[in-house]
Amino acid sequence: MSRGTWFEGDRGVSEVVGVVLLIGVTALLVGGVGVYLFQYGGSLQEAGPSFSSSTVYNDSATGDGQTLRITHESGDPVPTDEVELRIQDATTERGTPLAYGGNALERQVGESFTASETLVLDRTAFTTRSGSPVTGSQHLDLGEAAVRIVWTTENGKRSEIIYEWTGPDRTGA
């Protein structure tokens, strides 16, 4: 074989190699995107319920004390078995720590918190740390409190805060 005949038929090889490489790179990109979507795509599909609310805070120092009214203005009905009402740093007017009793949401709105329903947090929703009810002589103080409604997926893998309110005197987290 002479040198001239060896290279005479190689003109189209570079185009074929380029097309094969382009198809290979495309297949790798499509495979990478597919693996990403199968691995992380499922968690992207579960979104919390939409919850638009209005809040009225009564800072009364007389009667039963302060109250917080949370009204579900619009959005999805929120099943009460999928949410948790978390309240931190509620006290009496004398600074005695109070614990949330745990059932105000279910007791007031039932199985689902739907649009136009209102949750009222007053002293009847709380107990002292020893478990005793808050008496009539004790006034509720929510000035330093934080109130959150937290939605959790059925499998418990993801949660989302759908409502949050902080008292006017609260500092820090």
From TrEMBL:
Any single Pfam family the record assigns to this protein: Pilin_N
Source organism of the structure: Halorientalis regularis
Keywords carried by this UniProt record: Cell projection, Cilium, Flagellum, Membrane, Transmembrane, Transmembrane helix
Entry keyword Transmembrane: yes
Keyword Transmembrane helix: yes
Entry's transmembrane regions: 16-38
Domain Archaeal Type IV pilin N-terminal: 11-91
InterPro entries: Flagellin/pilin_N_arc, Pilin_N_archaeal
Cited NCBIfam families: arch_flag_Nterm
Name the UniProt record assigns to this protein: Flagellin N-terminal-like domain-containing protein
